[in-house]
Design a protein that fits this description.
The complex is a heterodimer of chains A (116) and B (113). In chain A, 0% of the residues lie in helices and 45% in strands. Chain A is mainly beta and 116 residues long. Chain B has 113 residues and is mostly beta strands. Chain B contains no helices and eleven strands. In chain B, a hairpin with a 7-residue loop joins strand 9 and strand 10. The chains are: A mainly beta (116), B mainly beta (113).
């Protein structure tokens, strides 16, 4: 597709289970971001991938959170031993690499995670 | 933290009126961007202003940037009911090892028909 694709769109899980969220960026976009948005709140930065550089993981809230990206394609965000406080919409965005464009981010529709 | 703060948190106006939202940030920036988010959807880019620019226009949107005050404003003229959404500013820092984009807290705009 032409846009950023995220899956699943909705995920309900039990406390303590692990979840994986997937993001397919726009082809050719070297930068990829994950954000968390709690209900009625702003976007909380989680992690940023830029090409082959080491990712900026400074926003990950705990060691239960991790993310991987294969080359300049798909990324997965993994949350281990989920807690109720992890309930949120997880948004992925991609952009052309810094210096290659305006830096405009293109967002997916998000993955809504509910931890019971 | 670099995160921006926006005010007001919520704004309700009548169709045809102008809406002004403000954004303040804390560190030096390379550029500042405004995004719109309809309820339950992803964000959509509206406009970008670079640190060496003071004002920019796009259709009914006007953005100003005052780097001395570390603030920006977004003006939507002749608002429409379809403009109802949350609006976020986002800043990209200057220098440093990372160019991540940090978002503000957002303004929820309601335009009454």
């Amino acid at each position: 597709g032409a846009g950023v694709s995220q899956s699943p769109s909705n995920k309900v899980t039990e406390k303590g289970k692990d979840v994986e969220l997937r993001c397919d960026p726009i082809s050719g976009h070297t930068a990829l971001y994950w954000y968390r948005q709690r209900l009625g709140q702003g976007l909380e930065f989680l992690i940023y991938f830029q090409g082959n550089s080491a990712p900026d993981k400074s926003g990950l809230p705990s060691d239960r959170f991790s993310a991987e990206r294969t080359g300049e394609s798909v990324s997965t965000l993994t949350i281990q031993r989920t807690q109720q406080e992890d309930s949120a919409v997880y948004l992925c965005a991609s952009s052309l690499g810094w210096g290659s464009g305006t830096g405009e981010l293109f967002f997916g529709e998000g993955s809504r995670l509910t931890v019971l | 933290s670099q995160q921006g703060e926006e005010d007001p948190q919520a704004l309700s106006i009548q169709e045809g009126e102008n809406a002004t939202m403000n954004c303040s940030y804390k560190t030096s920036i390379n550029n500042l961007q405004w995004y719109r988010q309809n309820s339950g959807r992803g964000l959509v880019h509206l406009i970008l202003i670079r640190s060496n620019e003071r004002e920019k226009h796009s259709g009914r949107l006007r953005v100003t940037l005052d780097t001395s005050k570390k603030s920006s404003s977004l003006l939507i003229t002749a608002s429409r009911a379809a403009d109802t959404a949350s609006y976020f500013c986002a800043t990209r820092g200057s220098g440093g090892a990372t160019n991540k984009l940090i978002f503000g807290t957002g303004t929820l705009l309601a335009v009454q028909p």
